Amino acid sequence: MPLPSLLRVPIKSELDNRRASPQSILDFINLSLLDVVRWEDDFLGDTLHGGYQTATNGAAAAALAITAPTAAARHGLATMESGTDDNGVSSFSLGEHFYGENGAVMAAIVSINAVTSYKIEVGFNDQTVGTRAAGTDAVVNALGASGTAATFYATDGAVWCVDTDAATTWQLAGVANAVVATKVSPTNVGDRGQNAVPTADVRELLVVALSDGAARFMRADMDDATTDMNRRFKQTYDSGWQAGFVTNTVALTPSVVVQARAGAANRILTIDYFGAWQYRYLNY
To answer: Tens digits of per-residue pLDDT, 45-68?
Structure first.
């Protein structure tokens, strides 16, 4: 029997929505207990955490790096760059500490400088960055258009992915022990365009949760307020549980990937937050 889900998107709007339910509020509190292993990074300071695995491939590709503190980056930022080669790539991950059977969840707040000729992946996979051949550190090899199957570098993985070689929209892809899951291709994730196409320089909170071999994908973005400081995240999409997306007992790592899909098109992915959590033990 799977452990109770740790899928709570820790943003104020979600807590406000659940305030009528004491149990729902307790669910949020549970995320801060020692029963839960938690990693969070807001990319503050001047030095990147030494435990990240990073890899790049291609001309001018740049690994994950902290943005110098400024008024505009007061909340902490990091960037990674695909470089200017066709299929140039930059990626990073933690270690393989996370398991579906422990109810693993990961989240990242990301934005990209342009929404043509690029690929982004956010999610879990079965190999830390830098352990595959150069240029194959992505989870997905080719995403494929809506309604077609993806191909994978990973044997196990579950990711949010947009790949303009296939389509301009977010798709939800998974593979369990080399068996490719049926993709979810939403037509609307509740973004400002009321479609599933990312907007340049607009932050998106992307969440992937695992449980009992299934994956669930959630998204939030900023309220369209007049100033950045007045905005707050609001959940806009929930895929529900998708069966057969990962193997429950395989060690996984949370990872983020940005890739150029045309020469001389450097794509800069900004990461505002990166986190992952799961139950400490299988049995209590």
So the answer is: 888 999 999 999 999 999 999 998
What the block records as the tokens of 243 is 């069966």
Domains and CATH numbers, the chain: 12-279 (2.60.120.200)
Span 96-149, pLDDT tens digits: 999 999 999 999 999 999 999 999 999 999 999 888 777 777 889 889 887 788
What's the start-to-end Cα distance of the chain, in Å? Answer: 13
* Ramachandran assignment for 103, one of left (phi > 0), alpha (psi -120 to 50 degrees), beta (any other): left
pLDDT interval class at 1 (50, 70, 90): very low
Let me know the angle formed at the C-alpha of 76 by 73 and 78, rounded to the nearest 5 degrees. 95
pLDDT band at 261 (very low <50, low <70, confident <90, very high): very high
Tokens of 71: 């008024």
DSSP 228: G
Distant-in-sequence, close-in-space partners of 209: CB < 8 Å, separation ≥ 6: 5, 6, 7, 103, 104, 105, 215, 216, 217, 218
215: nearest Cα among 236, 196, 240: 240
Tell me the C-alpha to C-alpha distance, in Å, between residue 247 and each of 36, 41, 142, 150, 202: 21, 27, 21, 17, 33
Q: For residues 205 and 9, is the Cβ–Cβ distance under 8 A?
A: yes
Measure the CA–CA gap between 131 and 134, rounded to whole angstroms. Answer: 9
What's the pTM? 0.91
Q: Tokens 């020692």 — which residue? A: 34
Please name which of 136, 146, 173 lies closest in space to residue 157, comparing C-alpha atoms.
173
